[in-house]
Amino acid sequence: MDLGVTFFDTAQVYGPFTNEQLVGKALGPVREQVVIATKFGFSFDADERSGLNSRPEHIKATVEASLHRLGVDSIDLLYQHRVDPDVPIEEVAGAVKDLITAGKVKHFGLSEAGVDVIRRAHAVKPVTALQSEYSLWWREPETEILPTLIELGIGFVPFSPLGKGFLTGTITDTTSFADTDVRNALPRFSEQARTADQALVDQVQVIAARTVATPAQVALAWLLAQHPSIVPIPGTTKLHRLQENTSAGDVELTSEDLKQLDDASGQINVHTDRYPPQMQKWINR
């Protein structure tokens, strides 16, 4: 908070459950000064994720558990973590609307939803924000998602705005990841894919040197320049990276900088999916 960060993102599935507890404990003393977002949408077998579940009764039960873990009376922003193909989005939106009426939730959000689902949900209960991946390295939302959000007045919260670290310039085609690192399973982090996309990182580094910023700051500044409704949520486990990321708002990119970044991004061909098949099937588009 000393750096000006007031928006915190968590989810039931992170841990699972333990991250909500951690966020609640850390933010308890400053609760009135922060916005807390969490997510529902998975079922669990003990402490293991066992599939999607957005049935209204499950939503309401798990939100009660989230309130307890977070130590709050109301959740500021409640997302559906992934669209459940077995439950009509109108029922999901209706359940969240009931929670808002009861004072247990303030705002309704979606994550990784497609345009049709966004519109249908919004018709039942106005959607405040959509969370989805968006960065110089993944610009798919620009085709349909972002225009729809702007039309409907819905905020956009991009996760992985630094391409899971790729845009920082600290990852090359020879970088190896720990056995537990999810990037080992992601097609875009194959050695071949990283080699093919290195030209984009090179251009980010050129502009970073010219603007006396870091590559991460340039990548975040580019994202912030796309539309005022965009609020990226870069994740980090290191204090110096947190300080670096929060300073990105001070980086001013010229129109020429933005054009060069757009051109470099447009020249790479992303031939692979973001996720392996078992994860990709949860993306609603």
TrEMBL record:
The keyword Oxidoreductase belongs to this UniProt entry's keyword annotation: yes
Domain NADP-dependent oxidoreductase span(s) in chain numbering: 2-264
GO CC terms, sorted: cytoplasm
Short name of any one Pfam family annotated for the protein: Aldo_ket_red
Single GO molecular function: oxidoreductase activity
SUPFAM superfamilies cross-referenced by the UniProt entry: NAD(P)-linked oxidoreductase
Keywords: Oxidoreductase
PANTHER family for this protein: AFLATOXIN B1 ALDEHYDE REDUCTASE, ALDO-KETO REDUCTASE
Name used for this protein in its record: Aryl-alcohol dehydrogenase-like predicted oxidoreductase
